[in-house]
Amino acid sequence: MNYKEIFSKINESLNQTKDSGKVASYIKELGNVDPTKFGIHLTTVNHLHYHFGDSEEKFSIQSIAKVLALVLAYKLEDEKLWERVGVEPSGTSFNSLFQLEFDKGIPRNPLINSGALVISDILVSHLNNPKKDFMEFLKNVSGNSEIDYCQRIAESEKLTGHRNAALINLMKSFGNIKNDIDEVLDFYFNLCSIEMTCRELSKTFLFMAAYGVNPYNDEIILSVSKSKRINAILQLCGFYDEAGEFAFKVGLPGKSGVGGGIVAILPNKYSIAVWSPRLNKKGNSSKGIKFLELFTTETETSIF
Ligand code: DON
Question: What is the pLDDT of residues 270-290, one digit of tens each?
Fold first, then answer.
């Protein structure tokens, strides 16, 4: 399939309508991004690469990194992990507080902020030097030693992270956070600050299309069963209160971030990363979702 030609054709049709939405500004540093950026990179399980636009430019992957933290926590804890976090779609925005009180401090899933904070707490418990050890894991998974945190973004988020502070304090009161709150928040803000290009992001997530096998060294990152389960969580929870809409329109497991990135996976075929910073009302990339809807329709490659 000539994906590159399809990217270009879809881009032309998207250019017929005005790009809607707003760049995230609740983290000051994210507000400085050029809203017209648009990049795509698709990597097939046979290591073929197709790209378009600003695919080689680094951007803040934000919540997409929650998936990689979840993968490591699942490796370390096995099924015990699900005693502290659920696997149900939340139907609420990513930083919502109200369900957590009702659910006695157990987040509905690991991809909303409360869930990712519990996952961060688990990693802080397991890892000797959490930020350094997590980055080593990520460099191995991605086959790329160039990936890193962005101190500027992490510091900027710390200044306005009041909802995350509220979520973690509430969970601590229910006994679902074991470590020092500031240490866990620091890990979480750094996690969200990781920067990648579309090419790096697509390559990093290729193991999720390869049933958990690292395509760069054949190492088993996740068992087939665990990789199926993580993809199921992506399908049901990857876009918060827009997860149903994303399944309905795109039909792939995926994850968004407020930096405007989206990664989506077609098992046994490809991993695709898209970046467009303007977000819709649900906090997901507006053009990114429209592009993926047209792409899976045109290529008939949804999982359904
Ligand atoms: O916790 C936050 O507010 C951000 N660092 C991550 C949010 C995010 O990317 C939500 N996803 N669409």
Answer: 999 999 999 999 999 999 999
* Farthest CA pair distance, the chain: 54
Q: Is the CB of 280 under 6 A from ligand 1?
A: no
Q: In this structure, are residues 95 and 54 in contact, taking their beta carbons and an 8 Å threshold?
A: no
HSE (side-chain half, CA atoms, 13 Å) at 50: 15
CB 134 within 8 A of CB 191: yes
pTM summary value: 0.97
Question: For residue 290, how many other CB atoms are within 10 A of its CB?
Answer: 21
Find tokens 């497991």 and name the residue.
Answer: 253
Which atom of ligand 1 is nearest to 256's Cα? Answer: 12
Q: Which residue has its alpha carbon closest to ligand 1 atom 5?
A: 192
Q: How far apart are CA 27 and CA 101, in angstroms?
A: 26
Candidate of 29, 30, 63, 70 to mutate for ligand 1, largest count of ligand atoms within 8 Å of Cβ = 63
Q: In degrees to the nearest 10, what's the CA dihedral of 81, 115, 290, 32?
A: -130
SS3 180: coil
Rounded CA-CA distance 156/67 in Å is 22
301 burial class (0-12, 13-18, 19+ CB within 10 angstroms)? middle
